[in-house]
Amino acid sequence: MDQSAWSCVLSHLTRNYCIMLYGLVCAGSVNPDHFDFSHYDNLDDLLDILDMLCIPRCVFIGHSISTIIDILASIRRPRPLR
Asked: Staple 50 to which of 33, 55, 62, 75, CB 3.0 to 4.6 Å?
C-alpha cells in the first residue's frame, strides 16, 4: 500500500487539520531507484521531517509498519509533560 490508501479520508481530515503525507522507502509504489539505501538503515525519517518543519508535536495516523514508526518515534521523543 501507499499514500493512495488515504485518498478516501483525506478530504475529511483536511477540513480540520494540516496534513503531511510521506512515503516510506519501498512502500507500495515508491521507486527504490530514487533512494540511497545506506541512508535508510533506521526509522528516524519521521523525526527528521518533523524537525525540518519545526513541528514539536503532532497527531500521527498510520497503518502497518507506519504504526510501528509512530510508536518508536513517541518512545524516542515523548511529549513533554505540562
From this structure: 55
Alpha-carbon span 66 to 53, nearest angstrom:
19
Summarised one tens digit per residue, pLDDT across range 64-74 is 777 888 888 88
Each domain of the chain, given as residue ranges in start order, spans 3-76
Residue keyed to cell 487539520: 17
- The whole-angstrom separation of Cα 19 and Cα 60 is 10
Rounded to an integer, what distance in angstroms lies between the CA atom of residue 69 and that of residue 43?
A: 6
- State the pTM of this model: 0.67
**Residue 7 CB coordination number (10 Å):** 8
